[in-house]
Each structure stands twice: as C-alpha cells, then as structure tokens.
Write a structure and sequence with these properties.
With 342 residues, the chain is α+β, with helices and mostly antiparallel strands. The protein is 22% helix and 38% strand. Strands 6-7-8-3-9-10 form a six-stranded mixed β-sheet, with helices on both faces. It has a five-stranded antiparallel β-sheet with strand order 13-17-14-15-16, with no helix packed on it. Strands 2-1-4-5 form a four-stranded antiparallel β-sheet, covered by helices on one side. α3 packs across α4. The longest helix is centred in the middle third of the chain and has 18 residues. The two termini are 25 Å apart. Bound molecules: adenosine-5'-triphosphate. The site of adenosine-5'-triphosphate has 11 residues, from α1. Adenosine-5'-triphosphate binds next to α1.
Length: 342
C-alpha cells in the first residue's frame, strides 16, 4: 500500500450458496488515487461481483473494502461516494440528456453539460431524451453523468462495449486523458484484452474468482506468469523446452529466457517477437509455411518448425506463400511459465 492509496480490497469472498463455490475467492488488491485498473477475465470469473461489492450493492461473506483507509464494508452504497456506470446505463428516462448530466453534480454554470457532453463526443445532444439515443450514445451519456459528479473513484462495467471499433478507440483515448487530468481513479471490468491494455495503467487478470496476475499493463503482457494469463492477454506461442540457467532449448533452437529456469518448462513467445524470411539459396530452413492469414495492416504466418506449429506476425510488405521454406528467428526473450493450477 502507498501513501496515495485510495481503495483497498482485502480478502473479499462471495458465495451465492452455502455449499457452492466462491465466485470471488479471497481477492485482494490496492488502487492509488488517479489510477486506472482493469479487471479482466473470462465470462463468469467474478468481475462484476467484485465491482458490486466495492460499490456496496453486494455484501461479501468475508473480507473488507477500505476507501482512503476507512472501512466501508458495511456502509450503504449511496454513502460511499463512488461513481458507477454499469452495463444497463440506468439513465433517468423522463429527464433530458442535459438534466441527466446535471443530476448529482454540484458544479454550477451553463457550460457544465456542454463540457461533459463534449468529452464523450455528444455535443448538442442535451435536449434529447434517453429513448432517442442509440445504445452507444446512452452509454456515453452515462459516462458523462458519472464524470460530472466528480467522484474520486468510478467503477465501470464494460464501459465501451456498445461503441463501434473506431469510436471505441477514440473514446478510450479522450476519456483516459480527461480522467488523468481530473485525477479520477477507475476500476473497470472488461473481457477485451486490447481495451484492458490500452485504457488501464494496471491490469489484474482474473480466473475463477481469483487474481492470477496483476501489474503494469505492458509488464503483464510481456511477462505473463502462466499459460492462462499469456493466452488471455493476446495471441501467443506456447512451446515446450529444456531450460538451463538463462536459456531454453526449443524446436526453434536455443533461446534466451526473461529469467532463469531449469528442467522441462513451458514458454510463451508472442507472434510479434518472431521474425520470418525466405531462405537464401544455400541456407537450411528451420520451418515451412503451412498457412497465411492476411489481416489488413499485417500478416500472420503459421509455420511448421520441426513438427511444432508457431504463429509469426509480419509486416504486410513481406509476402510469402504457403509451402515456402523459411527461417524463423526470435527477437527477444522467451518467458518461462509457471503452473496455472497452483
Ligand atoms: N445473484 C447471483 N446469484 C447467484 N449466482 C450469481 C449471482 N450473481 C452472479 N452469480 C454467479 O457468479 C459467477 C460470477 O458472475 P459475475 O457476473 O461476477 O462474472 P463476470 O466475470 O462479471 O462475467 P461476465 O463477463 O459474463 O459479466 C457466475 O457464475 C454467475 O452466474
């Protein structure tokens, strides 16, 4: 915990039936003021239940929630001073967009509504009613309304799920910038790895009610602790090898490791960490292309390397056909993985 600590979740556990499994299982994490944390994991892993316990809508069986060091586990939701945007938006249907945004904010002045609508790209929508908006627009109004209340912490459940790809990326960038300048902290739930990595400062990867790994977004992506985290946060090649010290012997040859290991290990190698090229006339290939996937801005090659299939991402300018004998090289280090089931 730091001096700047805003939220502490301590050993939160929630069972919905006395004999059933814990859907949130002894979960603990901390959040600093102004920090953005993504809870990411597959459907049913307990993300929303965790948010609901922090918000005060769900009572944990055991564990505590602290806000700036104060135990709020038994404090009613409306007294916690936490903003929330859940998947169903919950806009007031009889109020205009402008009235919805003004509701709950202590800020005065004519430009409050315009400022927050501008922030979510809905300038000029203040006179509309929620039923005159698309799902994505309602979602953005709900975000604007929670920002206007200026809480120190906002909980977001799938905040961008109803926006199309182009709008989603722009909304993420703009909203992240505004949250940072306002110093508002966020815990948000998503099962979209790109969203977690691009919007959050820190990610916590959940599985079956537990946090498998948490850390800075890039660190968790680059150094996943186990195969579950590695595959959940993006595409990867999981290979077997024999490690000794800082190296591992694999079907791609001897590779350096991010940290020492020994004996039989599983390793993760992201496809963008692999390079591919056609062999020169007298060169020995170490693989053969078995499939080519054109993805617009880049390509993915599926390559059989000594009986093991690996995927390699390459720039679109490299055009190699199926069946081509190639050299696959590793740019960077392989990550030795721990056991997901421990
Ligand atoms: N009120 C409830 N009563 C009984 N079981 C519940 C209740 N709420 C949630 N659950 C169960 O708890 C588990 C976790 O649900 P939760 O909504 O927290 O998952 P999630 O990770 O947010 O999933 P998703 O990504 O699909 O929203 C699920 O198996 C769900 O069926």
């Amino acid at each position: 915990m730091t001096d700047n600590n805003l939220l502490s979740v301590r050993s939160l556990t929630r069972r919905f039936t006395s004999s059933g499994p814990a859907v949130v299982d002894d979960l603990s994490f901390d959040l600093d003021a102004g920090e953005i944390l993504a809870l990411i994991g597959p459907s049913g892993c307990g993300k929303t239940t965790t948010l609901r316990m922090i918000a005060g809508f769900e009572t944990p069986n055991t564990g505590r929630v602290l806000l700036s060091g104060r135990d709020v586990t038994s404090t009613p939701a409306e007294q916690r001073g936490i903003g929330m945007v859940f998947q169903d938006y919950a806009l007031f249907p009889h109020m205009t967009v402008g009235e919805n945004i003004r509701f709950g904010t202590r800020q005065k002045g004519r430009d409050v509504v315009a400022r927050y609508l501008g922030m979510v790209g809905l300038e000029g929508f203040d006179q509309r009613y929620p039923d005159q908006l698309s799902g994505g627009q309602q979602q953005r109004v709900a975000l604007a309304r929670s920002f206007a209340a200026e809480p120190r912490l906002i909980l977001l459940d799938e905040p961008f799920s109803n926006l199309d790809a182009a709008l989603r990326s722009a909304a993420r960038r703009e909203i992240r910038r505004l949250l940072k300048s306002a110093g508002i902290a966020i815990v948000f739930v998503t099962h979209d790895q790109e969203e977690a990595l691009s919007f959050a400062d820190r990610v916590a990867v959940m599985h079956a009610g537990r946090i498998m790994q948490s850390g800075m977004a890039q660190e968790v992506y680059d150094r996943p602790a186990d195969a579950f985290v590695a595959t959940f946060l993006g595409r990867t090649n999981l290979l077997e090898g024999i490690a000794e010290g800082g190296c591992v012997q694999t079907s791609l040859g001897l590779l350096p490791l991010t940290h020492p290991a020994s004996g039989r290990v599983s390793i993760s190698l992201r496809p963008e960490r692999l390079g591919i090229r056609a062999v020169e006339a007298d060169e020995q290939p170490n693989g053969r292309i078995v499939a080519v996937e054109f993805k617009g801005h880049d390509m993915t090659y599926w390559v059989d390397c000594n009986g093991v299939e690996v995927q390699v991402d390459a720039m679109q300018s490299i055009r190699l056909a199926e069946g081509t004998p190639v050299r696959v090289a590793v740019d960077g280090e392989a990550v030795p993985l721990g056991d997901s089931n421990q």
